[in-house]
User: Which sequence fits this backbone?
């Protein structure tokens, strides 16, 4: 974030200090082309001067409670965490219908998805307290797809983690551009990511020689890490505390490998 | 192990103390029906009086260097680790041809597999320093199949871990008997466990409502944790240091969940 952006954020009263005084969170305005985007940043003022960075890509509803919670959890773990805004400032769907209508065009325009997430990646890499060689990206549902597209863009990202992300890829040959490691955390009963889509993803990764891992969690449907999704598996999206805990641990182990100094 | 068996083992000079003086290893003679079996036990003399137990089921060559190494690693981690002998005392195939001929009949006779592994499970549960309510089983290749069969037998095992195990099951309905949790650590390029077998396994677990997880590791073929398998993936079996390290960590995380006090 440059000085002007910081001044704007400060003027807007967006500098917030949590109960643990050393964790700073703030919204960050930045641009992709002419589109104004509003991301969410958090970090610990203590610790090393240069920390690893983690991009946290929102689900189809845009940056909301789940995204912010994850950003803050990662900041407490010592990462500079940043939720990039894929949709644009103020574009925050209020329900599933709006979210579907907003996300839909992005699924069909992966080039735009890559530009939007790259803008966030570059903003995070520019942060003065970030080691730009140690940046990973995670994403939820829609954001899992976005995080995978960041890898496929050829960005210099150390690792990508998809939580119940959509795995389809209109341009499988782009998997050859992936530079970092890929971890897919998948609900074994996710109706939006059926076995055939998982198989196609595995074949894509194999053909490209990517370092990838896929974990399937039993009893977990779409959105299994999102408390706000409720607990009715029959709806196709539901929170699952066991899969949430296990998948977060898998991410921690992955970060210990790909973000180590 | 009862007092007589201990005395026999001691008389045979099989009580060995490793460089870390507190780790004890010894062979253990026991029986299934009229068949004499010779397992391998290790534990730390320090630590709590009752420890969790881990059964370590050998690959198709029987109890050998890999099995003993894993038993000792687990003992150092605080478990009472025991390699049950599925084949019988002295039945130790020297090459792949002998191993295939020895293992083959067991793949076709799962009832015998269950009796053999249950005998080892019961022997471990009887050890005076084992908490019989906290026993898990792991297994390698052939032994992965055996560990899964222990679960399907309805044994009171807290968790089962298959390392590059064969996943097929002639009696999928038996998955309903599984009491503990199941973790499958799978080489994504394993020619002996193709995607269709993985899919059938997932469907078996889903139908039975088992708590299961499956991790697929890229670039890993059969036997990916076994150093003795060499490093030529084109042979279908080969060691993979990355997948070995990752899968061991996944097992540690799983044990932290299922074997906690």
Assistant:
């Amino acid at each position: 974030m440059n000085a002007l952006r910081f001044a704007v954020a400060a003027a807007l009263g967006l500098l917030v200090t949590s109960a643990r005084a050393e964790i700073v969170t703030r919204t960050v305005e930045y641009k992709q082309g002419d589109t104004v985007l509003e991301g969410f940043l958090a970090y610990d003022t203590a610790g090393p001067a240069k920390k690893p960075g983690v991009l946290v890509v929102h689900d189809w509803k845009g940056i909301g409670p789940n995204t912010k919670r994850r950003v803050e959890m990662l900041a407490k773990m010592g990462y500079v965490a940043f939720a990039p805004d894929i949709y644009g400032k103020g574009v925050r769907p209020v329900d599933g219908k709006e979210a579907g209508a907003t996300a839909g065009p992005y699924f069909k325009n992966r080039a735009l998805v890559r530009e939007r997430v790259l803008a966030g990646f570059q903003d995070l890499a520019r942060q003065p307290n970030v080691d730009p060689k140690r940046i990973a990206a995670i994403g939820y549902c829609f954001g899992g797809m976005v995080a995978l597209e960041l890898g496929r863009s050829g960005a210099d990202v150390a690792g990508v983690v998809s939580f119940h992300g959509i795995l389809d890829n209109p341009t499988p040959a782009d998997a050859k551009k992936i530079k970092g490691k890929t971890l897919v955390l998948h609900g074994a009963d996710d109706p939006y990511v059926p076995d055939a889509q998982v198989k196609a993803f595995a074949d894509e990764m194999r053909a490209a020689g990517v370092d990838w891992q896929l974990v399937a969690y039993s009893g977990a449907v779409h959105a299994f890490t999102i408390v706000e999704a409720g607990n009715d598996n029959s709806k196709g999206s539901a929170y699952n505390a066991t899969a949430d805990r296990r998948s977060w641990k898998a991410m921690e182990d992955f970060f210990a490998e790909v973000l180590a100094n």
